[in-house]
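FAQ: What does a multi-protein file look like?

Like this. Sequence, then tokens, then the next protein.
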Amino acid sequence: MDYLIFLGICIVATASPGPAVFLSIKNGAKYGCGSALVGVVGNVVAMLTLASVSAAGLGAIILAFPSLHTAIKIIGGLYLIYLGIKAWCSKSVSHAKSPEGLSIFTPKKSKLFSESYFVGISNPKAIAFYTALFPQFINSDEPILFQFALLAGTFASCSFLFLMLYVLLASKLRRHLEKEKILAWFNRITGGVFVGFGVALVSSNEA
């Protein structure tokens, strides 16, 4: 029963719109499923990293020191603002076309991975999620390592599945983005969303 509750929380948390979701939507719409998949993997690796940090007890230390938690929050917020400004200022020009008429321009996959990883790893809510939620679903009378692997694997799997669903849906927009005016508006909307997330995170009064 406890696991089903945890699974429900994971589904709601990973399906809800947030920076990782909108980054996946942007990547899927602009670069297609293949390249966007790299970004999704970057986010999942970030989640597993945070889970490991939580298991090592470092997450509790971060939450115990408000100044450190605030610093992470500000860094994460500024990075989202940076991504938003970069998206807003992206040139809405046509790139080289594939035989099907779709753009074959894609950024380096390592860049997509690092962007998604940093968005995930700098999310203070994710740190709080792992630090505050995990202990509530771990039975000290049972093998800790197995329980930790199960919970972390469940959250990572949910994150991967929902982010890929958003990527697949967004990739359907790719043909329309070959039109310069539509691409310009897409860049502005996604850029505005990221700036909004960043400003909200930086100005948040949460500890």
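And here is the next protein:
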Amino acid sequence: MPKSKRDRAVTLSKTKKKGREHKENIVSSIRDAVEKYNSIYVFSFENMRNLKFKQFREQLKSTSRFFLGSNKVMQVALGRSESDEMRPGLHKVSKLLRGDSGLCLTNMPVEEAQRIFNEYEDYDYARTGSIATETVELKEGPLDQFTHEMEPFLRKQGMPVRLNKGVVELVGDFVVCEEGNPVSPEASRILRLMEMKMATFKLNLICRWSPEDFEMYQEGLQGSDIESS
């Protein structure tokens, strides 16, 4: 009788969970970086694209160090209150690590860092669930941008299409997505086929800390908010 697959031994030696040791290493790395760099920035991000962020980080690796991950772990590294902060004022930075945010520790001049972050934008295709930035509607008639081989795929995406003498034809008006509404999986595929990039990957500076001062960048975040959070 052949041996059951359920009886096969599975080795776990190559699988490691990111536990306490991993978190302690991050805390240690952040604290080492605090001693090495002149300024610390908190930034938020929109429509994160890992590859594009890696490229951005690589461009600045000679002057800067970036940290993304658990906000709580980064908060522990900096200190969450005046009593346990690593350097004076760092608890204010810690309290601004919320949601989609990260740390940039750098030796760049302030003006250069602000310029690089403010000017950075990269466009990509909208993913499922992202919010459409415009309404895209296709009118009834031939769709010359699609080849006849794509007709079955387009039908699977819910588009009312047919082949007419080898040309893909829309038999009725079709709304791909509506501005302000989430992009469906089907709409995401259609927009990619149409080469319509609707997602903007951006990095927004929230604050800057240095041993000399602390500066807020985003409106609506006041000192009282930091202290009460």
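Q: Is there any per-entry metadata?
A: Some entries carry free-text notes. For the entry above: The radius of gyration is 25 Å.
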